[in-house]
Design a protein that fits this description.
Tautomerase family protein, Tauto_MSAD, single chain, 3 helices, alpha/beta, Tautomerase/MIF_sf, Macrophage Migration Inhibitory Factor, 23% strand
């Protein structure tokens, strides 16, 4: 159950946002064992005064079009799946909506399965396990 939060500079149209959602969701389905309909995603747009990314950190040349993708997910996947996810996100977002690979910053935050509630105040994964 990944929770995806995307941050970018203000000014992109709705179609651009939708392409970001579709690309990240498709990459998770293809590489990260995310079931169909497991889709919880937000986009937050920022003015230049509230969005700052290093233009050169780690030798990567980023532009003002950088997109920060934070994925919170259960800690149930190995390194190979994570690497495949990152690469597939970049491939899909480069194809549509045309984000440069250098401008895709991904942060994966892993949590224990019992740290999720999908509604009704129930920790559904904890109930399934315990």
């Amino acid at each position: 159950m990944p929770l995806v939060q995307v941050s970018l500079r203000r000014g992109k149209p709705a179609e651009y946002h939708q392409a970001l959602f579709e690309g990240v969701y498709r990459a998770m389905r293809e590489t990260f064992d995310v079931p169909e309909d497991d889709r919880f995603m937000t986009i937050t747009e920022h003015d230049s005064s509230t969005f700052s990314v290093s233009p050169t950190y780690y030798g990567v040349e980023r532009s003002d079009e950088a997109v920060i993708i934070r994925i919170t997910a259960s800690n149930t996947r190995g390194l190979a799946q994570k690497q495949a996810l990152y690469l597939r996100i970049v491939e899909l977002l480069q194809a549509n909506p045309g984000v440069r690979p250098e401008d895709v910053f991904i942060n994966l935050v892993e949590v224990l399965p019992e740290n999720w509630s999908f509604g009704n105040g129930i920790a559904q994964y904890a109930v399934q396990q315990g």
